[in-house]
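Entry 14. Two folds queued back to back today. First construct below, sequence then structure tokens.
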Amino acid sequence: MRGRVWAAAAVLVGAALSPVTADAAPGTPGATSAGERLIPTLGNGGYDATGYDVSFDYDPGVTTMRSSVVMTARAAQNLSSFGLDSVGQRIESVTVDGVPATFTVDPAHEKLLVTPAKTLREGRTFEVRVGYTADRARKPIPPYYDWPANVPFTWESWAETDSGFALMGQPDRAHLFFPCNDIPRDKARFTFRVTVPRDRQVAANGTLRSLSTRDGLSSYVYGTVTDIPTNVVQVAVGRFTTVEQTGPHGLPIVSHVPSTMGGFRVPPQATEQYGITDANVLPRITEAARRTPEQVRWLEDTLGLPFPFEKYGVLGVVGPYDGVALETATLSTFSAPALALPPEVQSETMVHELAHQYFGDAVSPASWDDMWLNEGHAMYYQNVFGASRGYRNLLDTMRELYQQDQSIRDQSGPPAHLTSPGGILLDTDLPGALTLFALHETVGQQTFERIERAFYLEHRDGSATTADYIATANRVSGQDLAPLLTEWLYGAKTPAMPGHPDWRK
């Protein structure tokens, strides 16, 4: 009897001292911030998103849309709960791997907090399905904006048009469209399923995988082959004409231009200055779209790199995007009336967004402090393109930009360490382009090209930091370029331009 008792005790003690199995391991909540310096509420931890499947049902009579998103992710820890960035939506249901989950909405921090029925083990792939209603009329002010209480918030993230809408998700508004991990370094593949009335068309990132029509409704399915960041997603509904072309190496070029301008009328000054009229505006927009293959070929030759995605094209929308454009992946988005401008005015902007497909979409910033890698490259190559076409003198242009640099630093800080998030989109392009030009003037054309190619190839389909770029420049050049680049990227004062002592700030 005694032996049996001790044997039983030994079994109990052994069980108590044995390591806890993965199935029984306690979980901990995932972080509800990605640690962004400029936008501290943004992003989440504890998982890596690998895919999003987004559905919208569009009804032209209302601003609300029945919607859903399925996020596929991989747990980076034993996960008891996790967050998604989400705002402006009515969340109706949440499941994890098909099992209902507990959820709460935190509008102040723009979060959807999810607690699955069981802990998600580290390394496990799981699916989160969120059913919700999106409302395109809602324009909540981001929590980090110091916006006057009595001034309407006018940023058009849901960009409404006469015949539909488009998206403007940069820098951090993709989670207004669907719950997601809205940070540029957590890239994923996307599928979009959009149902519209038969007289409307849909354009989106990636390629058209299917189109079916039933009971007066058309259902479009688009999808990407490669991972893209959330801030460059695009879904547009409207009345479009599709322009299909072939680019270098058989690259499909599929553009979507308006088939009608709706209530838009050409301003008299555009007629006087550029010869644009209500009668010729649509043909001019189509003509601009048809210049895309030539621009892709030029940039491929300049970089020595093939286009990074499975297809490309331009999207022209009437109404929103007034004066701006966005590098939505595989399908850059423009104000349609702006596309009607002469090539010497508009082509550089088209190349700017095209360059972003490499620097911004294929190689994404690891944080918003690295945004100069996007905007600096885009502005640099748009000016190189303009010089190649005789639209401008590159040296004169860089000198003009140089004279403006200090005022931007005084207002917003240096390009790799802005003083506020308000400068992310508008105050990193000029200083970033000058940084690249300073590097070019220091190492010469051939070494500069080698640095650019090496940096792109090392980080394609991922993200990169400012430190990554400096490290590549040092290694490829065989020089210590850190002092030069650090001064340009982090200095409060505009540095002297290498090779141009006559330039004065």
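Second construct, same run, same settings:
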Amino acid sequence: MNHNQELGAAGEELAANYLLDAGYAVLERNWRCNLGELDIVAETNGQIIGVEVKTRSSLGFGHPAEAVNPAKLRRLSLLVRRWCVTHRRNPHTVRVDVLAILMPPGREPRIEHLIGVES
């Protein structure tokens, strides 16, 4: 596993724990279908949430959330709906959240939770 893969895996682990601590149920991680992948599928208050996790070690290449463009958001929205169909779930709403994580070496990670960026 290279450095970027390790950073991404650490970010996804941190994100899952953050969601659990915030009262979300983490239903699945790294769910894949022919349309792509959802990093995390979570649930809270009857909502199914597709969570995109973006992790960086610095802002040298921009804020982590900047990597999630409108086309990616549309695809994530389709993915969370596909997950619901595949798992025979009929939530009253679905949404897409982004967890932008900055993990500078030797410092505490910072998590920014962008809620409902696409619903």
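Quick look at the second one. The beta strands are 25-33, 36-44, 47-56, 93-102, 110-118. The chain has a mean pLDDT of 93.
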